[in-house]
Design goal:
Largest sheet: 7 strands, antiparallel
CATH topology: Cyclophilin
Number of helices: 2
Order of helices and strands: EHEEEEEEEHE
Number of strands: 9
Number of domains: 1
Strand order of the largest sheet: 1-8-5-6-3-2-9
Structural class: mainly beta
Radius of gyration: 13 Å
Distance between the termini: 20 Å
CATH class: Mainly Beta
Helix content: 10-25%
Length: about 110
């Protein structure tokens, strides 16, 4: 069964560039027990900063081409570019599962 989760994209250039690629389905890999990631074939504009805390439901860009969906809140020293946020992240961890997953992003 497919899960449908809503997300809001930020109104900044990197998020708008990501939005221009939609709809798309990404095969996302598991990393660190808190995130799913996928490297895009092309680069997006960046405006990276260290958020200090990553929140459940954050959709961020690592570097200029790695889309990351976080399903747990934790502290970080890494820099990311904000793309968007899952509007209701409750149950996100169980929706994404424990391994690789296909995630469809659409408008």
């Amino acid at each position: 069964m497919a899960e449908v989760l809503g997300a809001d994209l930020y109104r900044i250039t990197p998020a708008e560039a990501f939005g221009s690629l939609l709809p798309m389905t990404l095969d996302m890999s598991e990393l660190n027990g808190n995130e799913k990631y996928h490297y895009l074939s092309s680069s997006l504009p960046t405006d990276a900063s260290c958020p200090g805390t990553i929140h459940t439901g954050d959709i961020l860009l690592y570097g200029n081409n790695c889309v990351v969906v976080f399903y747990k809140t934790f502290s970080t020293g890494y820099s990311y570019t904000k793309i968007g946020k899952i509007t209701d992240p409750e149950g996100l961890e169980s929706a994404l599962g424990s391994g690789s997953v296909s995630v469809c992003f659409s408008r």
